[in-house]
Amino acid sequence: MKATYILVTVVVALVLQLALARFTVGGRWVVDLVLVGVVYAALNWGPAAGMVAGTAGGIIQDALSDDIVGLGGLAKTIVGFLVGVIGTQFVVSRPAGRTALVAAASLLHRLLIVGLHGLIDLKWPAVPWPAILGETALNSVCALVLFQASEALPGAMARGRQSRRSGFSKRQW
Asked: Are 85 and 11 in contact (CB under 8 A)?
């Protein structure tokens, strides 16, 4: 059952990422919704789920982009595992704490990508701090919206069911 939730999380993140890709500047990935999905899976279901979501989402995202296949998968796997471990060691239940964790995960992910590119090219590339900080801010905002919605949606659905039930049970004369 957990595998289904992880798969649905990754697929939804990939579909949203692809749907929003045409609105980015110059075809670059400005916001990484797959990373937000990986962090969501890691916080909700633990480090193993973060690793699975990071591997699957990263490899598919790499295959769909023009980057080295496996590079993003490795970085997202590492980040998913670390976020899952942090999420199990510390109770990160408030949306603000989760958003801060997404910001740290975004920074770590991008620095891992830059470092792995440097290892592959055998030269250390310049770190594009404005782009990294912009992506971190956008990922954090998207994560805040996701975490708020995931907390509010079940309650809103239950209230909607309750109001429909109470509306049908009363007789209107």
From this structure: no
